[in-house]
Structures are given as C-alpha cells and as structure tokens.
Amino acid sequence: MILLTHNMLASPMKEASKQLHLKIECEEKVEKEQEYNADFLNRMIERIDWNSFCAAAQSLDVGNGLPESKEQVDSSNEEQMKKIHHALMEVDVVKGSLVCTETGRKFPIAAGIPNMLLNQDEL
Amino acid sequence: MEGLVPASGAFDADKFEDEHVHGVYDAIARHFSHTRYKPWPRVASFLQSLEDGALVADVGCGNGKYLQVNPKVLMMGSDRSRGLVECCQGMGHDVCLADNLMLPYRSDSFDAAISIAVIHHLSTEERRAAAVREILRILKRGGQALIYNWAMEQQGRRKGFTQQDNFIPWQLQDKFAGGTGQLVMVYNRYYHLFVEGESEKLMELAGGNEIVDSFYDHENWCVVIRKL
Known about the structure:
The structure holds 2 protein chains of 2 kinds.
Chain A: H1 3-6, E1 23-31, H2 38-47, H3 50-59, H4 78-90, E2 91-99, E3 106-110, E4 113-114
Chain B: H1 13-35, H2 41-48, E1 55-59, E2 74-79, H3 82-90, E3 95-97, E4 110-116, H4 125-138, E5 139-150, E6 165-173, E7 184-192, H5 198-206, E8 209-217, E9 220-227
Parallel strand pairs in B: 1-2, 1-4, 2-3, 4-5
Antiparallel strand pairs in B: 5-9, 6-7, 8-9
Helix pairs in contact in B: 1-3, 4-5
Protein name (chain A): Multifunctional methyltransferase subunit TRM112-like protein
GO biological process, one term (chain A): rRNA (guanine-N7)-methylation
InterPro entries (chain A): Trm112, Trm112-like
C-alpha cells in the first residue's frame, strides 16, 4: 500500500465516520521506483488531504523536506516535487496494520495488501 | 435448483455467498484471471471519458483488467476475493481486500466508479440495493457509476436460462491449481441473473441517484447512474 492509496482509505466499521484517515503501523516497507509524471503528480496533489499525507509520510520516515502545506508546494521546484513523488508513490507498506482511530480496530496489511474485510460479528 | 435463494424465511446470505462466490473465486482465481484480460470497449470508453486526474473506484476489480485502461486517472481497485487481489498485486496495482457492502473509502470522495459483473453475485435484492448505495456513498455529488450485471436473456454460449438464481459451473483445469493438467474440477458460482428493466428498478430501490444511460452489452444489462 502506497500513501496515495492510504489517502483515499477510511475505516469500513459501521461506527466509523467514513471521513477520518487510518493510522499506519508499519512493520516493513519497500521502496519501488515509479515513473515520474509531473502532470499526474500535480493533479494528485490537488486532490489529496495534505495533513494526512504528511503525517503518514512522517510515520514512515519519508516526510523530510515535504512542504508543510499544499500552498507551499512549488511545482517548478523539481527537487521538492520528486520528494513528494517519492513519499506519495514509491514507498510501499508491505507489512503492518491500518488502525481505525475511532474504534481501535486494526486491519492487517500483508504482502502489500490491506485486508479491510470485517468479521461476521462486526457486520 | 428450485429455491436456491428462499423467498422468505431463514437464509444466511453471508455464509451462502462465502461458499458459493468468494470461496469459488479464491479457488479459481489464477485460471479465471488467465481468461479475463481483454477490457470490454464500452467500459474502457467510460473510463477514457473521465477527466485527467479523476479518482475512480473499481469495486470488485477482479484481476485488475480495468485498472490500467486510462493511466491519467487514479484507479482504486478492491475485491472480496484474496486470490483475485493477489493477481492485481502481481501486476503492480495497489489494491485492497474489501467488501462491496462495506467499502473502506471516504464518503463523497470519488469522481466515478465501475461495478463490472459484481452485484449479480449478491443473493438478495436488499443486498444488491445496499451494494449500489455503498457505491453511491463514496461518490461525490454528480459522480457517475457504470454498473454491469449478467442478463437472464443472454443469447450466447450460455443461453436458455429459465430462472434468475443459478449456479454457473467453472471448469477448473488443475494446472492452474498446481496439478498435472490432466484433471478438471468443477466449481459452481452463484449468480442472480438480471432481467430487462431490473437494473433500473434496483437503482430506484437504492435511491439517491438518477439514470444517465442504460443499455445491453456483452450479455449484461448495464446502467450509468449519477449521484444526486
């Protein structure tokens, strides 16, 4: 799971607000190169929740050098854009958990795939 | 197969679908994926018609054949079958394991969604409507969803259905399950086949949407809806 995906996820628990982001508990991450596409990246920056992205990037130790707010993103600064690209698209959490901050329910990530299924008694 | 899904009385839909849908897809995933590689043109053109940078959910993405049709949009794939999401992961797509009835996405956030041959695997009308409502939940107002379901009236290889609730056999060549290639195992998948007009009725039952288009394609009844 990359952070771009994480930014769109919310807890599927019925008690949850379906708005808040999940907390990442990372046990293992890998870095994988993704093609840099400035146009696509700009469009993704427009749509992500920046605070959530930065907090998630910090928790994975890839938050250094990221602008503190979306307004500070300078799309002509290629060095800064490549840092954003790296944190958003190239760091893959392959093992760990996603934690619903409203209920404490943990959703395991194994082989890079978050398991967001609920148990019978949670339906 | 009379009374596959009882009209009333005790029926555990979760357990039934686990056994006759999710369990089957896990078992046949590799072989199934091998046969599902070509995107249907009308689904592809729906995806290509979206604005660059659009956020799109592929709910029940199967082996992920629609995840790379339009590289200018962000596709979020999910499926209920672990075997199938592993096929997507193998092709480099970031996907998650999730249930159509409880999607792990933020509300009012997607520009579009596709549901291709998925809702027909749910065994009651109320669950099929709930699946549509959950897709509508994640869409932004004005966001569109393209929904395909297998038709009862199909005239191709599998023509001649006489009832809507059916087990459709999948002949699994055992070479896809680590065997020698000599044996064929049969798995029965549950389908609720849609009749003409049923998609429109289901969208009305789900509520909160209007129909933009409806048509017949590749033996499926299809609708495009817009979230109100």
